[in-house]
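For reproducibility, we list the full input for the adenosine-5'-diphosphate complex.
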Amino acid sequence: MITVNHLTKCYGNCIAVDDLSFEIQDGHIYGVLGSSGAGKSTIMNIIAGCLPATKGWVYIDGCDIFNNPMAVRRLIGYFPEHLPLLCMNDTPTEYLQSVGEAKGMKGADLQKQIDSVIELTGIGSVRKRMISTLSKGYKQRVGVAQALLGNPKLIVLDEPTVGLNLIQTIEFHNLIRKLGEMYTILFSSHTFSEVQAVCEQVMLLSKGRLVAFDTPDNLGKLLKESNGIFFRVKAEKAAADALMKEKEFSTVWESTDQGDGTTSVCVKACEDDIRELYCRLFLSFSRNGMSIFEMTTRTIQAGQF
Ligand code: ADP
Ligand code: MG
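The corresponding predicted structure, in tokenized form, follows.
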């Protein structure tokens, strides 16, 4: 359903999304997992057609979103990180009415859809109260309800559970699971337990790069404390990164420019025996003219990436 090819987004010198490629299929719940600043919102904004990319392509149902923004927008229901402040003085019904009209719906069809999304998201009891007076849990449900208007195929939810208490979060997860039976869902979060609770497949992002795309169970193994290799190489960061990507040593790594013509790289080993990886790294960098100054194994804590 969505194909993302070499997607890159730069804000000035900041590379928020770095050469990202992935595919997602119809009818599943996908998680986008990453710490703050990993690039989750940027990717979701681009897929939802709200932000241009610097490079790369995104196709939704075969349709290039940058060349057909209007056609694609109809396929997507987007709940951004924050509800617009403007809607706070509306009731959910009024807000849904204006969103529906903006999406080109009207009359009886719109009323029917409003009733249906109110029912689905469980906000019937508060539909006539001003949004600003609702609990965060209900506000987030209103955000989901507006995303569902217009019969989209893909629902994009950007960290919808931030700020919810435990009970509200569990209820929200139930809502996402229910929606997952009807829609394809892309859902972002910064906590592993949350994507584990609701998603079938998870993309792990670190500093704008896709470092893993797997089931929550497999990702859990990857995120556990494990062996890693640390080295410092005489090369610019871009050259070290390019070699890391080209040789596909491990999906989980990060690099830091040391500012003296060297780059330090920390690579997570997914296998127990890391000797083979150690040798491959050493040989590849030295054969490509990048001398290694230091190279050690160390334990990488869970969640470091
Ligand atoms: P996340 O949603 O995972 O927290 P974002 O996509 O919001 O990550 O941000 C990714 C990176 O891009 C961060 O380093 C952030 O500071 C930067 N960034 C996001 N939006 C802007 C912007 N409008 N201008 C400049 N930098 C931005
Ligand atoms: Mg974000």
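The pocket of magnesium ion (ligand 2) is lined by residues 40-41, 81, 158-159 (CB under 6 Å). Residues 87 and 95 are 6 Å apart (CA to CA). Both points were considered when choosing residues for closer inspection.
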